[in-house]
Specification:
heterodimer, A: MetI-like fold, 2 strands, B: 308 residues, mainly alpha, MetI-like fold, 13 helices, 0% strand
């Protein structure tokens, strides 16, 4: 097992270098790089531009520039953002916790919804519950999450109000008809505008809509997957044996069937977890959430190379790491799998 | 000489089988109600996109200052946008663009994936190793981030076919290049199993060239899973395109797509102008769910264990 992990880690390293090289080349070829600001300056002569290019090392061949860049990355010097002049690692470090907070909570919500619904669907195959759940899972898979986010804002921020009015107190009718009420849910940000140290309640309020939006991302897929896996094991011999032994239904389901059905589901989830970064890009853009996704979005608009590179590298590393974790959990959970 | 006899034999068997396969598939497919409903909805959307230029009295790109931000009414069933253009007309013109991108990007993706998967599976050994590491490489790249970076790169390329109509060609290319990995793995798996079968050995014994065996003898046998994968890929690329355009990195206005119409609606909907965001998203949703159900129906209908 240990040697397998070490071998896979060693395979991951050249992969990371390759990805970093490809991304480096792609970004270097894109317009709007570090020279574009100077090129628009009418006071600079072509000679000045050439001298600047040399100073910035941009006239060297691409592989030399890559080697210079990657050796700096390896010693922890990730450069400075072209737009804000702050170190790339600081910029990322400021945002990463916000994104992780959003992702982890959404992921937990997804699991809490998808696994029980998938199990019940499988146990009551072809029941009304199963049909409704399967249909909703199909709907969930087809709804574009950015649209879902916009709809959430319209309904819970624009249309519905907080039923407590400052002038006339609480009334259910204030939900849709109220002159001086606040919106039911905040429409963006991590805290009310101008508040530096939000209370726990305020934090949770600001999390509800973004988490709902991001949780939609995988719930449909995982529900269907859980249902399928459960259906596969429930007719197997060892489940029948467990029943024949006289175990009660709950024990049969939880200890015998679920344990085996869950293994591939967990693997798929681990594999797709980094995909949440993509979803977070939309969530953070729509809800002005100060995380990595929004940072990437703005850096892409400004073609801010060092930041773009940094974010992609962190993402690629996470994807590779989670691939590895998925394989390892699979090997740990399923004793039949042995890698030699 | 042996080659031609073999091929003719092979072909006639295939045609005979295909005719009955087709009718059998259709019989199965018809039983899947949601897949039939999906086909119907998709057909309506396609017809609407084709006929919109004949049926609609409005110009998709001409603004009308007196009719800005009108909610849905009889004249404008889906309202008007910030420039007073009829939303419904623009949505069907957008459908042309979005559906075309979905379809063509899938063709590119399936083409690359099938070729790579077939070569890796058939030849095995070092070629397989290299191609599969390449696949791993593409899978490990964060897709949405790579898509955005590639659109930045595309802006600097002065290739007219890629830039026309708000950059539709470029988007097709990018989406295709980043969506072949699943197909490659699928086809490779199929080939690994099929290349050991007797009919392949027979073909090889007859001295048929490798390329011919790959494309004429083995590939037709992998059509079923590829068709299902392609169907679902169309839905995926449509979502990816609209996501890119929603962020402003995809097809550029004034060429309408469902994604960039949603982008334009972002600020409007905070003012309560819901129809500008609701209808473009609804179109994406209807298209994607229809295609997904069709894919589901096809999978059931093409499943050889179910047909008997």
């Amino acid at each position: 097992m240990t040697s397998y992990i070490i071998r896979r880690l060693l395979q991951a390293i050249p992969l990371l270098f390759l990805i970093s090289f490809i991304v480096f080349v792609l970004i270097s070829l894109a317009p709007g790089g570090p020279m574009s600001a100077f090129e628009e300056n009418p006071n600079l002569t072509p000679e000045d531009l050439a001298r600047l290019e040399e100073q910035l090392g941009l006239n060297k061949p691409i592989h030399e520039r890559y080697l210079a860049w990657i050796s700096r990355i390896l010693v922890g010097d990730w450069g400075y953002s072209n737009a804000t002049r702050r170190p790339v690692l600081t910029e990322i470090g400021d945002r990463l916790p916000n994104t992780l907070q959003l992702m982890v909570i959404s992921f937990i919500v997804t699991i809490l919804l998808a696994i029980p619904i998938g199990i019940i669907s499988a146990l009551k195959q072809y029941s009304v519950f199963d049909h409704v759940a399967t249909f909703l899972a199909f709907v969930g898979q087809a709804v574009p999450i950015f649209w879902f986010g916009l709809i959430l804002i319209i309904v819970f921020n624009v249309w519905l109000n907080n039923p407590v009015s400052p002038s006339s107190g609480f009334s259910w009718s204030h939900l849709w008809d109220c002159g001086d009420c606040k919106p039911l849910m905040p429409g963006g940000g991590m805290a009310p505008y101008g508040v530096d140290n939000p209370t726990l309640g305020q934090r949770i309020q600001h999390l509800i809509l973004p988490v709902t939006m991001l949780a939609l991302f995988g719930t449909g897929t995982y529900t269907r997957y859980m249902r399928g896996q459960m259906l596969e094991v429930i007719h197997l011999d060892y489940v029948r044996t467990a029943r024949a032994k006289g175990l009660n239904e709950l024990q049969v389901i939880l200890r015998h069937a679920l344990k085996n059905a869950l293994t591939p589901v967990i693997t798929i989830m681990a594999l797709q977890l980094p995909g949440l970064f993509g979803g977070a890009l939309f969530t953070e853009t729509i809800f002005s959430w100060p995380g990595m996704g929004r940072l990437f979005f703005r850096s892409a608009q400004r073609v801010d190379y060092p930041l773009l590179m940094g974010i992609v590298m962190i993402n690629a590393s996470l994807i590779i790491l989670f691939n590895l974790l998925a394989d390892i959990t699979y090997a740990v959970l399923d004793p039949r799998v042995r890698y030699d | 000489m042996a080659t031609t006899t073999m091929d003719r034999l092979d072909l006639s068997v295939q045609q005979g089988k295909e005719r009955s396969m087709l009718s059998m598939t259709w019989r199965q497919f018809r039983r899947h109600h949601m897949a039939m409903l999906g086909s119907f909805v998709l057909l309506l959307l396609i017809l609407g996109s084709i006929l919109v230029s004949v049926v609609s009295p409005y110009d998709p790109e001409k603004s009308s200052m007196r009719e800005r931000r009108e909610p849905p009414s009889l004249q404008h069933p889906m309202g008007t946008d910030t420039l007073g253009r009829d939303m419904m007309t623009r949505l069907f013109y957008g459908g042309r663009v979005s559906l075309t991108i979905g379809l063509l990007a899938t063709v590119v993706g399936i083409g690359i994936g099938t070729t790579i998967g077939a070569l890796a599976g058939y030849y095995g050994g070092r070629l397989d190793n290299i191609l599969m590491r390449l696949t791993d490489l593409f899978i490990s790249m964060p897709r949405l981030f790579m898509l955005i970076i590639m659109t930045l790169l595309l802006r600097s390329w002065d290739v007219p076919p890629l830039k026309a109509n708000g950059g539709v060609g470029g988007i097709i290319l990018i989406l295709g290049i980043l969506s072949w990995t699943g197909t490659a793995r699928l086809v490779r798996g199929q080939f690994l199993g099929l290349k050991e079968k007797e009919f392949v050995e027979a073909a090889r014994a007859l001295g048929i060239q490798n390329m011919r065996i790959v494309f004429r003898h083995i590939l037709p046998n992998t059509a079923t899973p590829i068709i299902v994968a392609a169907t679902l890929l169309v839905a995926n690329t449509i979502i990816a395109e609209s996501g890119l355009s929603f962020l402003g990195f995809g097809v550029q206005p004034p060429t309408p797509t469902w994604g960039n119409m949603l982008n334009a609606a972002q600020d409007e909907m905070r003012k309560g102008n819901w129809w500008m965001a609701f209808f473009p998203g609804l179109m994406i949703f209807l298209t994607v769910i229809s295609i997904n159900y069709i894919g589901d129906g096809l999978r059931d209908a093409l499943d050889p264990h179910k047909n008997l």
